[in-house]
# Entry
Amino acid sequence: MSKLNWKRIVVKVGSALIAPNKQGCSSHYLLGIAQFIANCRAQGIQVVLVSSGSVAAGRHHFSEVAEPNVTLKKAMAAAGQADMMAIWDRLFDFPSAQLLVTHGDLRDRERYVSIKDTILTLLEHGLLPIINENDAVTTDKLRVGDNDNLSAMVAAAADADALIICSDVAGLYTKNPQQHDDAKLIKQVNHIDAEIYAMAGGATAGGVGTGGMHTKIQAAEKAISHGIETVIVNGFEADNFNRLLKGENPGTLFTPFDKPMQEHLHWMTHTSQVQGELVVENDFDGALDGLPNQLTSDDVMAVNGEFSVGDTILVRRDDGTKLAKAQSNYSSCLLNFIADQDDGAFADEFQQKTGSIISDKHIAILENT
# Structure
């Protein structure tokens, strides 16, 4: 591990550590994490904390509800967020700051940059940013859904060197260790592929959190492509954090790309969300070279979904092959209007006056998909 080279890290703490008994916040498992964060700061390492747990922390205020609906969960989040911030404040002797975000914030380029600037300014002034998804107000359309992936997006925005994901197991195993005695811990992963995802499985049934090992692998994939070293550790064992400070690997280490994606390309690939799609012919040959300059209304076979100017869209072939994610220069309404015109000269004249359908500054080529 490259601990000695860390300048900035993101630590992700899940709901099971915040409220292990679903009866409000508990500091029992948080003391070791808080000490680790304090030790990192003492060594000059900047820390960003991504903390789940608002719904779990607020559940005890609604104890008469057996199966809360979406509205009640939002109310639980509103109540629990204050409790969660209060317990973190009690554990630190330095100031912290709260940032509540949604995927709607992160996938909008202007708001994403604003979040990035806020995080870096807080760090510059010695505050600990504590970030969570804004569960009290977000909707299915605007939510990330799990704080594993959120932590990777935050790590990319913060230009972190390392992402530490605290789990309820030691790391990634060859099989589910709760079901198989012969499951072996994988100490290092140099490449994430289908086999790695197969080992991860799905979310744990009956758990406190919303993710599982699968979402942690997704987060690791996002982070390492940005050049961010990622470690999954058992957050219930305080000694793991002492080992991290010594430069040891107490869990599963995911090694970063040798050549990380550029920041803007990473955002387009891993954070922006597709709002619609353009379908082109199977023999379209402008897919990987000069796509922005070659994609015209004549190339588009179909426009799927509803999107506005500036939204992220998927460009794919008719056979389903994904070519690129890009920012649309036109709305779906306008593109459909152009397609409905019987006069081809209208589309040609429109194209000459307005230029490419997608932005040449906001595009991510999707190879071999």
Remarks:
- Confidence is low (pLDDT under 50) at residues 203-210.
- DSSP finds 14 helices and 13 strands in the chain.
- The domain at 273-365 is CATH 2.30.130.10 (Archaeosine Trna-guanine Transglycosylase; Chain: A, domain 4).
- The radius of gyration is 22 Å.
